[in-house]
Model the fold of this input.
Amino acid sequence: MKKLPFLLSAILLLAAASTASAQVRRQAAEPSRSVVLKVNVLSPFVLTASGFVEYAFAPHMSAQFGAFTTGASYKDVEFSGYGFTPEVRYYLSDTKEAPRGVYVAGYGRILNYKLTVDDKEEGKTYEASYKPIGAGIAAGNQWIFNSGISVDLFLGLGVNGGSLKVKSGTEDDFDLGFLNLVGSGVRFRPGLTVGYSF
Done:
């Protein structure tokens, strides 16, 4: 009779050890990858560098923070600056956990640009600044391979709002074209990122 509690304790201990061992084996076979570091490979085509860090904090939810810097030009307008993109993603799959699979997202944008125009005919330089704030929605699919390599393809649609602040010259001196900087404008946000998850 005295041996029964000892036997039960031994069985419970073995069952707990077996469960823990199985969980460790499962984690070794399918490592938990809740953090992804990545860069947008389309950004260099517009003379921009952008990177992201994403953290999955629930089975279907993640938070992502992006940052970029740019030094491009459009016609005679040179612009340089930086921006930040905070984002919350909801992953739709019932068989995969975040940050894997198809997702929808809501994001914000905080931008800071300095614009310069060199008027060679007049021998003058005009300067302005633009600091819009925006928001939008996006959808995409993120693949994470066993090696840890990630590929994220997405398309977003957002609205930026702000006003051009001219330091020298006039608003007419700045041909903003596709930037659509003055007032509010709808902007597409395409992206293809490659990164590493851990």
About this structure: The longest strand covers residues 101-119. The chain has two domains: 1-30, 33-197.
